[in-house]
Amino acid sequence: MVTEENVNKIKLLLALGWANKRIAAALAISEPTLRKHYLSVLKVRALARDALDARRAELLWAQVEKGNVGAMKQFTLLLEANDRMRWANAQRRGDDDDHQEVDDAPAKAKSEPARRTYLGKKDAALIAAEDAIGSDPDLQPSLLN
Description:
Layout: H1 4-15, H2 20-27, H3 31-43, H4 45-65, H5 69-93, E1 99-103, E2 116-120, H6 121-135
Antiparallel strand pairs: 1-2
Helix pairs in contact: 1-4, 2-3, 4-5
């Protein structure tokens, strides 16, 4: 009765938010039978959506790497949705999620604990741009003699 196909189907239906009763009906089994044979799958209900989203992002990224422009647009939308979700979660917790953590410890002695410097979005973007310019010889200013 327990098949990998049914396990995958249950994981998908859990990720979609289906109740046990509805899942059992879709598999044409009773709820007690569902719980008996698939209890371990049902226990991870809270993680099912995250697993589905992660797999979806993985498949989408594979298409992005192949140069699929439509996938690039969808991946951008996925990133924006993820950023909105992170921001909303930070607001609920009362966190200030508008900064990035940067480690400036390499200059320090190993015996001292590492200090963290927090940069705002603009500073982090400026550093990233400077790094990109520094690593690409085509973007470096040429010296004219």
